[in-house]
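Page 42, continued from yesterday. The earlier attempt failed because a stray header line got pasted into the input along with the sequence. Redoing it now with the clean sequence only.
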Amino acid sequence: MSGRLAPVADWLDEPMPRARDLGIVVGSLPTGPTNSVLDVAGVGLGHATLLRDEPPPPEGRGLARTGVSVLVLADDAFARPLPAGGAVLNGAGECTGFITAEEWGSAETPVYLTSTLQLGRVYDSACRIELDQNPSSATDFVIPVVAECDDSWLNDARRMQVEHEDVVAAWEAALASRGASSPPDEGAVGSGTGMSCFDFKGGIGTASRVAGGHTVAVLLMTNFGSREECIVNGVPLGRRLGPVVSTGSIAGGDKAPAGSCIGIVVTDAAVDGASCARLARRVGLGLARAGSVAHHGSGEIFMAFGTGMRLDRDGNPDGTTVVTGRALDPLFAAVVEAAEEAVLNSMFTAPTVEGRDGNTSETIHTPEILDLLR
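This time it went through. Structure tokens are written below.
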């Protein structure tokens, strides 16, 4: 955190319980040790959370409820790209590097997550980091993976809130988190700070599963859905709660159901690019179990990466026997379970957050809601 930020909010110092801590157990497959993306060896997740209360533009930058999150996939991803593939459920969003992964079946940078209007700024910083770490990328070009969701319900998007040093801080935090014995921060942190899910507070969520002798982990940035659609481990919570009461400044009611969800799958299985695309597609099934219908204005964009087999700079595989065909079925099941649980973790770990113009995303973690789930 830099000195230009407002004091850190209490929720950053007092983590809230995850779904399993509350007795909400999704699926039947075993989890990894931390039930997160950190269960895949060499993978790290870091955040830079931006909280700022200034006068609205042009006098100041307004209320910042935003940030950046970075998922490091491997130290040497530029020299030895990872198999990668993607899938789109609804395409009202952006993810750079997606087309390259679709064409080549590989990726060579960390994954950067941020808010919609700051994607270009974070992309610039991702390139600067890559150039510092791998100078040859200036001529042997690199296209970083940067994905976005719209946090303008809570965050004042009229000013660029993310700076280069914030992206670097998140990247360094991701490097430092590798091999940790506890799960990473979730909820209203990093790029998830200003996100909402099913009209509750959403944000960053992760979960993992062990299946077919491999670890499969999912990272989500959740920013989608309407209250009445919300399902918690099979319980139609949204229908039990009834219509949402307006908590914002939009005349005539609440914001339209839109948002987005970025889903990232990482596995230590030796999968190729085509199999990564198939794994990525299964994230949508996990979101559907949580209630998503992929609204018109929502961008559900998913990518998957494998660390068990690597490529050289010319795209040649290293010779490792790949997992493919019916052998992928256990991994498919793992993605669906982990994606569903990651949605819930993104919500239950997030407190109520008030943003610009009095707009508020309320936490799902209340005694009344927990009673409805029993």
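Notes: Residues 329-348 form the longest helix (20 residues).
Reminder to self: strip header lines before submitting.
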